[in-house]
Specification:
The complex is a heterodimer of chains A (1058) and B (357).
Chain A: E1 9-13, H1 25-39, E2 43-48, E3 63-66, H2 71-81, E4 85-87, H3 92-104, H4 107-111, E5 114-115, H5 120-127, H6 129-138, E6 146-149, H7 152-162, E7 166-170, E8 180-182, H8 185-198, E9 204-208, E10 214-222, E11 228-236, E12 249-251, H9 258-275, E13 279-287, E14 294-300, H10 305-314, H11 318-326, E15 353-359, E16 380-386, H12 389-399, H13 417-425, H14 431-440, H15 445-452, H16 456-474, H17 478-486, H18 491-498, H19 502-511, E17 517-520, E18 534-538, E19 552-556, H20 567-582, E20 586-591, E21 606-609, H21 614-624, E22 628-630, H22 635-647, E23 652-653, H23 657-664, H24 666-676, E24 683-686, H25 689-699, E25 703-707, E26 717-719, H26 722-731, E27 741-745, E28 750-759, E29 763-771, E30 784-786, H27 793-809, E31 813-823, E32 826-833, H28 840-847, H29 851-859, E33 872-873, E34 880-886, E35 907-913, H30 916-926, E36 935-940, H31 946-958, E37 961-965, H32 967-975, E38 980-982, H33 993-998, E39 1004-1007, H34 1013-1028, E40 1033-1034, H35 1037-1050
Parallel strand pairs in A: 1-2, 1-4, 2-3, 4-5, 18-21, 19-20, 19-22, 20-21, 22-23, 29-33, 36-37, 36-39, 37-38, 39-40
Antiparallel strand pairs in A: 6-9, 7-8, 7-9, 10-11, 10-13, 11-12, 12-15, 13-14, 15-16, 17-18, 24-27, 25-26, 25-27, 28-29, 28-31, 29-30, 30-34, 31-32, 34-35
Helix pairs in contact in A: 1-11, 5-6, 7-8, 13-14, 15-16, 18-19, 20-29, 23-24, 25-26, 30-35, 31-35
Chain B: E1 3-8, E2 13-18, E3 28-35, H1 41-45, E4 53-57, E5 81-84, H2 100-106, E6 111-113, H3 117-127, E7 130-136, H4 141-149, H5 156-160, E8 166-168, E9 174-179, H6 184-191, E10 196-201, H7 206-211, E11 216-219, H8 233-242, E12 245-248, H9 250-258, E13 263-279, E14 284-296, H10 298-302, E15 306-312, E16 318-323, E17 328-331, H11 346-356
Parallel strand pairs in B: 3-4, 4-5, 5-6, 9-10, 9-11, 11-12, 12-17
Antiparallel strand pairs in B: 1-2, 1-7, 2-6, 3-7, 8-10, 13-14, 13-15, 15-16, 16-17
């Protein structure tokens, strides 16, 4: 059937900022879907608040709006654009929830807009626990015994009837926010309370825990003619009990016989048919490992993280097909985009194994509770393909970029069996590594199985790996190398085992012709001829890479999404690929993140789904023989590979490895700035506590301290006096001559950020950004404003000038990012990154300069002048754009939310308007901040900032706010003549600060960090309570002032007559 | 680890690990085909239609969930060899009784693991199915060439079919199941619908069949070339006039031949669980389980008493036929599944409806 004839124009809703549970997969599926709809001749309007996405490039759709994803803003777009339909199934839970709100408010009916792919009653049946349970009972599909509760009492009553353990699942939340498994009444009370609070409809499902069952997922597609297919099924190595987003997953299922496979397949088809979904859907099952008994856990009536994974795992583009189905096409008339010969109506057959491992943020959030449960905690994931479980699992492990090259963690080596077993029982992110260690220590598979319920099949694969390790201890023959490589062992591991270098192992392999081949992912296990440019490496016989005589350029992607290296880098990567192709060369991408646009095989000439390690990248380079490799778009991941690759003779395109080193090596960089006579905050390297104290005094407090051996703001802190310095030295770092500590003078000033492009000659600056928060808050967590609002032209000129001279001095070819602080009217350089930065998509969008594309062309020899650019700074546009960070604190318990020099945000949004306050307002709204226009502010401010805070509070008071505050702050407010109620610190009175927050009387918290053991932990508790209650808690006065400005702009002044 | 060698008629040879029956002094020769199913190896191995064939499983991990007592499609596997990328020592599943390796040994089926099965699959795809032989690792090559010069046997149906009638009592309609090498799940599919089933040898006479006073006749699947059993065509021709008839796979091809259509050998056949079949009257597509090397030719149907009811969405080959005037229909694929999708189980209901009307 053709596209519905009444559809001419459709609106696609994106998923907004990246948060835990909703990541880059929706940029992938959204981008693919929009292209797919355009192919069908439709006019597509797109809205999303996340600028760091390919989908919000103006070229992606006919009209692109970067606006907050709220009904208020959507309604404006609906009126302005008057689309015929909305596709709500491509933007995750965000889009689905919005669609429901618009429909329920009657807007869609009034405007004559049709919901495509999924009707509201379908969404409700799938999402509302009660309706879902009813439907499952109607069609005879089993669900675990459960009840819906709206109060704590109801949950306790159910527990009396059913017993423990129970699972608590809040309705309508991302990734199961606020849920968990309760084993005792006490736990049930805690979890239900937080669950009810996080559910927008204050509803939780409490059900019998089926933890320990096999967790199996099916990806299903249905069209309006009721044709249904399964794209893929997947099996979680971690049984039910760990959120699927936090589970290690393999595809296809491994331990299901055909009877079980078909049992669940038939069930999944029945469910999608009963829901009448037109498009993609994900069904999750719990299957009893000892019988055919199964339960339906969950249905997502939309494309999801799992469907992105399934698309990459099979090569079947679910979102693309789902979009066509949503507008009326049927599966049997859509051509299979992979074979181009058959139709989309078939079920992919795999001839490889796919492993997915989540990437968790615990390296950044060291205090976080690492236990995995029903609340997803991972920020990203990696995927690897191999011909065996062992190969695909080991490839996935080294894709994670956590410094591991094998299924082993040095810190668990030699630990006692009881330590290992109790760690395994904790069910945290390191479990699989510790299991391997326990097996190495002689623990039986049965013991591990009894503790974890992980299937023997998977445990035996880990045992195979360990058996190979043993053989490698005594055997170094070429035969065993080949066998080990076939199992996915890395050169690094062999090198370690044999006390050789990685290079020597490589040479050894090469001498014995033990080299990988590349196999094609073709959806059909080789049954039909296809030419999918999608490959993975394996040690087999036949290589399938199609020969080509074109000039080739390899681009390295940025790997899994993690805090500090997000979707922005995938954006730049995709742009680089497009630029290479536009120049008539072949673009080859290597990446391992299944969520992203860059790993859509339609984007590049060839996609290699591989770990981003020297070995794996070099394999591809050897096979493809490109003119060179571009490393500057894939974040630190790719940059770190530049030097080792160059050492193997690979040509690094763009800025040379030596110049990269000049920018990244602290000593060399200082030298460079001295030569250029450019100022930077004074700093030093110290190797003892005494030296630290002495040098800090010399620099002058406050200082920023950090260990030299971890990068990216980890364990970085600002200390204000000797006492704090000593505390830091004892608590946070290990200091000795091998592990020096860096100390820099902390200059409290306005932070500025500049991105520039250079072809080695001409330096072009598309724009300068100003950060709202003062230096000291990580640039990734600061609100950035383009163009700068509070900085003089003199300073801007100085910034441009400094940028031009550093860029030239570093011989940059491509992109560079510079961060500055303005201190007492002077410009100081904080940091220089010789690569694409986080701000590339934002700045590209607001200036209209496709920075990564231009940079790529410059790298490949097309000068900036030839590209129509000039040496200097582009004059600012007549618009104001604000980039605001978005955090996922609600998903991560026991994480400090106060902003500091370590990055904590997971995503970003953009607000753009004609004037600053409006843009800022949009950015806040898009970031999910509910801006109060009056109410009570809870204030607790440290002594250093009281004076500045009082000024802001006066203004707040003026527009209709009153205050509760802790003693010191209250005193300051009173003496400034602002009415305030004093509130006791935690535990110091019946009605303490925590109780006050929980009372619901507070609409905003302003809390600046105070140092010192007790106040620190009090503040921490308070901030956590606020986050868990969904209450806005600001820890920077700069952010507070920004918020105040938007409130002042939007509200009335409340003055009594005088 | 013992090594054995797989040699193809094309001359390619592969060394791999022996995972099945020991073939020190013997060899095993068969027609090399591939199957793309990711689950269901036990059903595939025991499907009599694989008689004299050697199966390459395209999915690399075969044997994961072991072997259980329920999932056999016949008592004695008839295939000549199994070719896989990897086969574990033990299976893991609650129904697992013994390993796949053990099954191969019990039924004296040689098996080879560790080779590039994707390369092999692509070879079959581009060259078509061909003969292959499994031999000990050091078996002399010149002996192998002579093996390939012998034509393949043509008596597979005779070998796998029942030697005498067997009765499976039920309270419902009586169905005579003509056994060309039937899969047990065809029988189960009838029995769960309360049918009373009599399985008869492929060469049962009209009179013998009539003597069971059937309400309907089902022609089963089976191995080899439908043209190897011309003697059954007249029986089918008469039976269809007397009883509602449903034919599956080999049965479908024989049904076509009996009604004047023709069959031909496909280059590499259809073997797997993901083949889309479009029903022309319903306008809908179903996933089907397939295992056939021959197909009914489209042109030949034009001059027959049959019409095409279903086609393969990928290559437009015939997947279903029905008689223009008589209550008889057939499908090329396996509505009984096992292994594979259960999307077309309703065909058995249609058959029973046809009987009731």
């Amino acid at each position: 059937m053709p596209v519905h004839p009444h559809l001419k124009k459709v609106l696609v809703i994106g998923s907004g900022p990246i948060v835990i549970g909703q990541a880059a997969e929706f940029d992938y599926s959204g981008t693919q879907a929009v292209k797919s709809l355009i192919e069908e001749g439709l006019e597509v309007v797109l809205v999303n608040s996340n600028p760091a996405t390919i989908m919000t490039d103006k070229e992606t759709a006919h009209k692109v709006y970067i606006e907050p994803l709220t009904t208020e803003f959507l309604l404006k777009i609906l009126h302005k654009e008057r689309p015929d339909g909305i596709v709500p199934t491509l933007g995750g839970q965000t889009a689905l929830n919005l669609a429901v709100k618009l429909e329920e408010a009657g807007h869609l009916k009034r405007l004559g807009v049709e919901l495509l792919g999924c009707k509201v009653d379908t969404i409700q049946k799938a999402e509302d626990r009660k309706l879902f349970k009813n439907l499952m009972q109607e069609i005879g599909e089993p669900v675990p015994e459960s009840t819906i509760v709206s109060t704590l009492e109801e949950s306790l009553e159910f527990a009396k009837k059913i017993g423990f353990p129970l699972i608590v699942r809040p309705a309508y939340t991302l990734g199961g926010t606020g849920g968990g498994i309760a084993r005792t009444e006490e736990e049930l009370i805690t979890i239900t309370t937080s669950g009810l609070a996080s559910s927008p409809i204050e509803q939780c499902l409490i059900e019998r825990s089926i933890a320990g069952f096999k967790e199996i997922e099916y990806e299903v597609i249905r069209d309006r003619n009721d044709n249904c297919i399964i794209v893929c099924n997947m099996e979680n190595i971690d049984p039910v009990g760990v959120h699927t987003g936090d589970s290690i997953v393999v595809a296809p299922s491994q331990t299901l016989s055909d009877k079980e496979y078909q049992l669940l397949r038939s069930s999944a088809l029945k469910i999608i048919r009963s829901l009448k979904i037109e498009g993609g859907c994900n069904v999750q099952y719990a299957l009893d490992p000892h019988s055919f008994q199964y339960y339906v856990i969950e249905v997502n009536p939309r494309v999801s993280r799992s469907s992105a994974l399934a698309s990459k795992a099979t090569g079947y583009p679910i979102a693309k097909i789902a979009a066509k189905i949503a507008v009326g096409k049927t599966l049997d008339e859509i051509i299979n985009p992979v074979t181009k010969k058959t139709y989309a109506c078939f079920e992919p057959a795999l001839d490889y194994v796919v492993s997915k491992i989540p990437r968790w943020p615990f390296d950044k959030f060291i205090t976080a509770n690492r236990r995995l449960g029903t609340q997803m905690k991972a920020t990203g994931e990696v995927m690897a393909l191999g011909r065996t479980i062992e190969e695909s699992l080991l490839k996935a492990v080294r894709s994670l970029e956590v410094g591991l090259f094998h299924l082993e963690m040095p810190e668990w080596k030699g630990k006692s069996v009881s330590d290992l077993m109790s760690k395994i029982a904790q069910q945290d992110d390191e479990r699989i590594f510790v299991i391997a260690e326990a097996l190495r220590a002689g623990v039986s598979a049965k013991e591990i199985h009894d503790l974890t319920k992980i299937d023997y099949f998977f445990l035996s694969k880990i045992q195979n790996i360990i058996a190979m390790e043993k053989r490698l201890e005594t055997d170094k023959s070429p035969e065993i190398i080949r066998e080990a490589k076939r199992m996915g062992f890395s050169d690094r591991f062999l090198a370690k085992t044999w006390q050789m270098t990685e290079n020597e192992i490589y040479q050894l392999r090469k001498n014995h012709n033990i080299l990988p081949v590349f196999k094609m992912v073709d959806t059909c296990a080789g049954e039909f001829e296809s030419s999918t440019p999608y490959y993975y490496s394996t040690y087999e016989k036949e290589d399938e890479v199609l020969e080509s005589n074109k000039k080739k350029v390899v681009v390295l992607g940025s790997g899994p999404i993690r805090i500090g290296q997000g979707i922005e880098f995938d954006y730049a990567t995709v742009h680089a690929i497009e630029a290479i192709r536009s120049m008539g060369h072949e673009a080859i991408i290597i990446n391992n993140n299944p969520e992203t646009v860059s790993t859509d095989f339609n984007i590049s000439d060839r996609l290699y789904f591989e770990p981003l390690t020297l070995e794996d990248v070099f394999n591809v380079v050897e096979r493809e023989k490109p003119i060179g490799v571009i490393v500057q778009f894939g974040g630190q991941t790719a940059i770190n590979l530049a030097e080792p690759l160059a050492e193997r003779g690979v040509k690094i395109l763009g800025t040379s490895t030596d110049d990269i080193d000049r920018a990244e090596d602290r000593r060399r960089f200082e030298e460079l700035l001295r030569e250029l006579e450019i100022a930077q905050p004074l700093g030093c390297t110290v190797t003892s506590i005494d030296e630290a104290v002495e040098k800090s005094a010399h620099l002058g407090f406050p200082v920023i301290v950090r260990p030299s051996y971890v990068l990216g703001g980890r364990a970085m802190e600002i200390v204000y006096n000797k006492h704090e310095l000593l505390d830091y030295m004892k608590r946070a770092v290990q200091i000795n001559p091998e592990h020096p500590v860096l100390i820099d003078r902390y200059m409290i000033g306005r932070e500025m950020e500049v991105d520039a492009i250079c072809d080695g000659e001409t330096v072009f600056i598309p724009g300068i950004m100003e950060h709202i928060e003062k230096a000291g808050v990580h640039s990734g967590d600061s609100i950035a404003v383009y163009p700068p609002q509070s900085v003089s032209q003199d300073i801007l000129d100085k910034l441009s000038e400094t940028t031009l001279s550093i860029t030239r001095a570093l011989n940059i070819k491509g992109l560079i990012n510079l961060q500055f602080v303005i201190y007492k009217g002077e410009v100081f350089v904080l940091e220089v990154n010789p690569r694409a930065s986080r701000t590339v998509p934002f700045l590209s969008k607001v200036t209209g300069i496709a920075m990564a594309k231009i940079a790529t062309k410059a790298i490949l020899g097309e000068s900036l002048l030839k590209q129509g650019l000039f040496h200097g700074t582009l004059p600012p546009k007549d618009t104001v754009a604000v980039k605001a960070p978005v955090f996922s604190f609600a998903k991560l318990s026991e994480v400090e939310i106060a902003l500091g020099p370590e990055m904590k945000s997971t995503g970003e949004v953009m607000g753009k308007d004609k004037i600053f306050e409006k843009a800022l307002h949009k950015a806040f709204v898009a970031a999910g901040v509910t801006i109060p226009d009056s109410g009570t502010i809870l204030a607790t401010i440290n002594d250093l900032e009281k004076e500045e805070a009082i000024k802001l509070f006066k203004r707040f008071h003026q527009v209709g706010f009153d205050f509760v505050a802790t003693e010191g702050t209250a005193k300051a407010l009173k003496s400034a003549g602002i009415p305030v109620k004093t509130i006791a610190r935690i535990g110091q009175a019946e009605n303490d600060i925590i109780k006050e927050i929980k009372s619901g009387r507070v609409s905003l918290i302003v809390n600046t960090i105070s140092k010192g053991k007790n106040v620190e932990s009090d503040g921490f508790k308070m901030r956590r309570v606020a986050v868990e209650r969904g209450l806005l808690c600001l820890t920077s006065l700069d952010t507070t002032e920004a918020l105040l400005r938007t409130i002042e702009r939007n509200t009335y002044s409340m003055d009594a007559l005088s | 680890m013992k090594k054995i060698k797989l040699v193809l008629e094309s001359g390619d040879s592969y060394i791999g690990e022996s995972i099945g029956h020991d073939i020190d002094n013997v060899h095993s020769l068969g027609e090399l085909v591939f199957n793309t199913s990711m689950t269901g190896y036990q059903e595939i191995l025991s499907d009599p239609s694989y008689c004299d064939q050697m199966v390459v499983m395209t999915y690399p991990l075969i044997g994961n969930y072991g072997v259980n007592k329920d999932d056999f499609e016949s008592l004695t596997p008839a295939l000549k060899g199994l070719v896989v990328r990897e086969c574990p020592m033990e299976g893991s599943n609650w129904r697992n009784e013994y390993s796949l390796r053990e099954l191969l040994k019990r039924f004296k089926i040689p098996g080879i693991a560790g080779l590039d099965t994707r390369e092999l699959t692509k070879k079959i795809r581009s060259r078509g199915v061909m003969k292959a032989v499994l031999v000990p690792e050091n078996y002399p090559d010149n002996n192998i060439a002579s093996m390939f010069s012998h034509p393949m046997a043509r008596d597979q149906i005779q070998r796998v079919s029942t030697k005498g009638p067997i009765h499976f009592p039920g309270s419902g309609k009586r169905i005579v199941l003509m056994d060309f090498g039937y899969k047990k799940n065809i029988l189960r599919s009838l029995m769960i619908r309360n049918c009373d089933v009599v399985v008869v040898p492929f060469n049962a006479t009209l009179e013998q069949i009539q003597s069971f006073r059937p309400d309907g006749v089902l022609l089963s699947n089976g191995p080899g070339d439908p043209k190897d059993v011309p003697e059954v065509l007249p029986v089918i021709k008469e039976l269809q006039k007397l009883y509602p008839m449903f034919s599956i796979c080999m049965g479908h091809q024989l049904f076509a031949l009996a009604n004047g259509a023709n069959t031909e050998k496909l280059k590499f056949g259809h073997r797997g669980g993901n083949h889309p079949v479009k029903d022309l009257s319903l306008g809908k597509v179903f996933m089907s389980s397939q295992n056939h090397g021959y197909a009914v030719t489209t042109e030949s149907v034009n001059n027959s008493d049959l019409e095409i009811s279903q086609i393969n969405l990928n290559d437009s080959t015939i997947e279903g036929l029905k008689h223009k005037t008589l209550p008889a229909f057939s499908v090329q694929y396996h509505p009984e599944a096992c292994p594979g999708p259960e999307d077309t189980g309703w065909l058995f209901d249609n058959f029973l409806a046809l009987i009731r009307n």
